[in-house]
Amino acid sequence: MFSQKVRNFIVKLQGLSDEQKKAILLAIVIIFGLLLGLWWIASSAKIIDRGSKDAKFSSLPFLDIPELETLKKVGDEVKNTIENIETMPPVVIEDWKVYENEAYGYQIKYPPSWIFREYPDTKTGAGFRPSDAPDEIAYEFVNINGGDRGSKYCDIPFSEYVKTAFAKEVGSVNQTLNSIEEVDNVNQVKMYKTTWNSIAPATGKKIIVGPITYFGSGKKDCKSYQAVLDSNDYTDVYEQMISTFKFTK
Is the pLDDT reported for residue 180 higher than 70? Predict the structure, then answer.
């Protein structure tokens, strides 16, 4: 039950901006700090009070804290805060545009100040960039793509396929899974957010590639859908975009 609440909480955070996430997390830290502070004061009061029994006073009125009730109230505040966050609607700008790929049956929203270039040959996806960025592939900082896994990978559960997907797709043994996080987005699409250990071709140095987010359709097909972030400067945009991904057929 608690783990599910935590997962739901994380899902709701996906659609929020970085500033909103920071404000929410700061509020939770303050509440927990207050909780720990009250616990410490109450514990100290009990120790001092026990040591004062042989003295002229037998209690410390200025530290007479109904600790159990106080801690319970603070605990309820934390619970209510999390529950309120869980029920917050996803922050998706109403005027965001929609890119829909009819061939592979999916769509994703993107900021109104961004534009996309659909892959001209394959039509499997598109690259997205700010409208004021140069009209070059190198400035397509978010890429969304659909494709076929390949017949020999069709019988592998998608949740297992994603653990080696990047290495299979680029056809190299130099890519190994660094991290993976499984979470549902606001459209209840299963997302697998991954990063990968790799080798930089130019320098031969070890690097981390990603995030690459894979979307599970829940169907027994041989398809693969993923969104790639190519610049950490646009992490906030990327997180909000993948939170809107959904299948249309």
Answer: yes
**Domain extents in the chain:** 17-86, 97-247
In this structure, which amino acid lies at residue 107? Q
Q: Say if residue 169's pLDDT is above 60.
A: yes
Sole residue written with tokens 């499984």: 182
User: Is residue 43 helix, strand or coil?
Assistant: helix
In angstroms, what CA-CA distances link 243 with 15, 218, 226? 6, 17, 13
CA distance 120 to 125: 9
Please give the mean pLDDT across all residues of the chain. 78
Sign of CA dihedral 192, 193, 198, 203: positive
How many CB atoms within 10 Å of residue 66?
Answer: 10
97-247: which CATH architecture? Answer: 3-Layer(aba) Sandwich (3.40)
Q: What is d(CA 228, CA 161) in angstroms, rounded to the nearest whole number?
A: 17
